[in-house]
Amino acid sequence: MAESAIKEALAAEVGHADHDTNTGISNTKLAMWLFLASECLLFGGLITTYLLYKTPISTEQGPAPKAVYDIPFTSVSSFVLLMSSLTMVLAVSAIERGDHHRMRAWLAGTALLGSTFVAGQVYEFTAFKGEGMGYTTSRSSSAFYTLTGFHGVHVTIGIIMLVSLILLSLRGKVPQHRAEAVETVGLYWHFVDVVWIVIFAVVYLIP
Amino acid sequence: MSTDTATPVPTNVLDGAVEEYPRDLRYVWVALFLGAITLVEIATYAQPHFAVWNWGDKAGLITILLLLMALKFWTVGYYFMHLKFDKKLLTWVFYSGLILAVLVYVAVLSMFRIWYPGSH
Prior knowledge:
Chain A is mainly α. Chain A contains seven helices and no strands. Chain A is elongated, with a radius of gyration of 20 Å. Chain B has two domains: 1-86, no CATH class; 87-120.
């Protein structure tokens, strides 16, 4: 399929070819990267707040987050999320080869791994609550739940996007010349993964 | 036009990359590399007295963990997010946001004297 054929297909689909910015990068892709750059500031703020508040002050009740962490369990969750990045990039690779069946399979695998991670987080939060560390127990617990909860919401939004892509693909709305849509969702997913790489090290592992 | 073709399409045509994306096997190797780094991270928790990171009153442990974290971050961005293959502008856009965030929040942490235990 030549470049001109792809542009013709896009023009036939939406009435005009997709516009690139004057950098040669499409609007969609550049916008996603700008969004991800701004997300660095959001998560940076949440991680900083956690670092400032991670030690409960003496008058506060309840355990500190560090006292209730289940590192082996969180390590497995981290590994699951890391592997979801592999399945995501394989989905992008599949659609760029025009292999729709494999793309859907990899997207479903990514959504499943993401769901496993979120389920693990829900279990972890429930266990922490059972050990006496609720959201309002102390400023350190509030900072911990806000940071990891925000990340969990991001993963959940990513899962919704993945399932939407699968449904759109089943209806024939994600043809090969629309591979960039899968790539853009993939960028978001990988970002969610790299944020967890930072959280896992800074929040859970670094003493 | 058929949308279900097996003919490879150059990635620069599909999404403006400047270099062809790698084959799937490369991604699997990258994932194995990331998995191996994660195992080392977990080992720092499981074997805290191992000489490689047990030095300088936890300074060794913190240094190793920050380096491993940075390496994983960079690897995912470089290969999985295709920064290696896309126009360099995207690398600048992303790392500008990241560096700005790091500088701003290091300044905030410094203001609260977090580098001096017990004084914030």
